[in-house]
Amino acid sequence: MQQRIEAALVALDPEHLSVLDESHMHSRGLQTHFKAVLVSQQFDGLNRVKRHQKVYATLGDLMSEFHALALHTYTPEEWAKIDAAPASPTCAGGHG
Question: For the chain, which terminal residue's Cβ has fewer other Cβ atoms within 10 angstroms, N or C?
């Protein structure tokens, strides 16, 4: 699943892309929770909501195959200033 998410996000022409499987931090089983750090010029001029919508649209039907995706989206200029994404919180969702 991790590789499938990465392969789909290549369509956004990222300068940096990392997709981490964080399922071990949650109770829903394997390959259910992911964190994506994506740096793309395509995010220039877009607010966080619009950036996330662009990612969701790019992933399409793949979105229905896992429970959660923590997104950290940056322009190259923003990424140069921080060079790291924040840590993901533990799951607040249901158990099972």
Answer: C
